[in-house]
What does this fold into?
Amino acid sequence: MSSRYKRHALVWLSESGWQDVAAALATEHRHVAQRWQQQDWPTVVRRRDADCDDDIVCLGIALPPDADGVKLRLPVTVRSSQVRALRAPLAVADVVEHAAPPWRERLLRLHHEFAAQACTVGVYGSLALQALTGQIYLRPSSDIDLLFAPTDTQQLRQGVALLQAYAAVLPLDGEVSFPDGSAVAWKEWAQAGNEPDQRVLLKRRSDVALARVGDVLALLEAHPCPA
It folds into this structure.
């Protein structure tokens, strides 16, 4: 599978893709695939299954929470030829109007501060899904999941500092994304404090592993993310 299918990316399926997804789902869940296809809503790239062929794209469909707050998540797979469109997660500016009213002004300020530093920040999770589908995903306890992709170590430090500052006034969560598509929870990265021998949980294409901060920084310096 091409490395362009990174976790949290948005994928729209062809008709044959949706047919295969529906056929593979349990009978009680097939209506979900049918609705997603009818509404032309995207699926989301998830961590790869260990036994997948290279041509398989691993995706997920997340439903809005039920009355008890339970979110049904359906893991699905398609062949890469069944992908009709692929795009990066929504930008912060794309979701502001869908956020809870108390969040909007602060979230917009955060967007402008990141933009001033030429930082790439996407949104995934409940807020993104609400913006994409118009369904109600957000609850009072919801977080704002941000995906920050720094271009170098300086931008990494600046971006994490911004996230820490705004976490005092917004329920921020999310990850720092590195050039190979691996990621670390930004709060865990901040706690590690850029100490080279500290270890962080690195979320990779098909697994997770403990990695030294110094090794992850070396990856960023050797293969900077495109600006």
